[in-house]
Amino acid sequence: MNIGEASERSGLPAKTIRYYEDIALVAPDRADNGYRDYSSSDVHRLRFLSRARNLGFSIDECRLLLSLYTDRNRASADVKAMAEQRLEEIDAKIAELQSLKSALQPLVDCCHGDDRPDCPILDDLAGLRTKVKHAQA
Question: Where, per UniProt, does this protein localize (predicted)?
């Protein structure tokens, strides 16, 4: 199948598929005319990559996951360790985002958001406010 059909079946843009080919994550055959010829196995691999990337695995991690997937002698502990590491990274990112929210929420709460020119959000960003007052009713 051509790249357009592989794109449709895998849910990945053709540009991404070409990139994955450039970095040797997929290696479709070439037809006599030089066009890429994707097999159902290639599409399966592309779907695998799409899912792994959507879960936040890096390209290098995807490469390792693919090698583990094709290695029937693999230990599932290796795969689990990678997934646990990814979960730790996600938990750290969630904590970072919660911290950002905790810092920004009081600024949003104390900003009147009206036609007045004073803005505690801008003042804080400029380092002009040291303590945020809670919004008055």
Answer: Cytoplasm
